[in-house]
Amino acid sequence: MYTELGKTKGTAQKPMKYIVLDLEWNQTYQEKALAVQRELESRLRGEVIQIGAVMLDESKNICGSFRTTIKPRFYKKIHRHVMRLTGIDQKQLDHGASLRDAMSAFYRFCGDDAVFLTWGPDDIPMLCDNLRANRLEAPWLCRYYDMQPMFNFDTDGAQKKQRSLEYAMEYFSIEQTLPAHDALNDAYFTALVAQKLNLAEGVRRADEAKTDRLSLFVLGDADSGEKGFTDVKSVFLAPEIASPVCPLCQETLGNGDKLLHSKGQRYLRLYTCENDGEMFTEVRLTRNINETWRAKVSVYRATEEKITRYRDKLALEKEFARKNRRRNKKTPTVKE
Ligand SMILES: [Zn+2]
After folding, report:
1. Is residue 183 part of a domain?
2. Which of the chain's termini has less CB crowding within 10 Å, N or C?
């Protein structure tokens, strides 16, 4: 049923080739988006209308560029806001290539051993949603990395902040000499930022983090027809989260340690499997388009370093709560 565009071959220590990718996508009003997604039975928050890419060789020299405009199939009318932002008008869209042709051309540009780099985590999943909606597959896209954590690591330590591309450009004194929100221009400036980063190390770190992950699933994804959680409390009542099982041996994981709540609706809990040792469950909450919550749940191996960080944060939280309690107790008893 799916048409596979390009093949993934074994990559026998070929020199690394980076493709810095940026997309522009069209949007539509909420009712229309919901109707289309229901019809397709899969998520399609936007429809890709432009692919821009810059190729870097192993020494991070720019050695090629790619841009194509795509004619949307589902959200055909250019959104006013998207037109203002990208400068792409209806006529250009109507003359765009089909996603299938665009992706075939893009594959010829990339080859089958490329490593993709994006600014932020959204582009490749968006492209994959688009491929799925068109019954296409491109397994050669699977090796991709978000440059935001690499930038954070190389500049101010392992900060969790999501910095904008403009921020990174300013940080490295890269001048915005071409208009933004053109997929190729954005890819070009992202490539200039990439040149300043230790890409090989960033890729190695991300690969390492991935091998620690034991399982990943999503609950309450309204876009793919699930109900979605009406509030945060009900997320934690879902059996998959309230009484998780070990992804390795399928045994129940028991009660676990205290729940650690971090910024950006991220919840971490340490469990011990009698057979496989300590592991974390991480629940990340994001909003569905209908305002309900969806939970991305990953289970990963608990390394010593991560356990220490988790315990430290819990202790900090406890200390903070204790101080707050004391302050609250004090205030009413203060005498003039
Ligand atoms: Zn186990």
Report:
1. yes
2. C
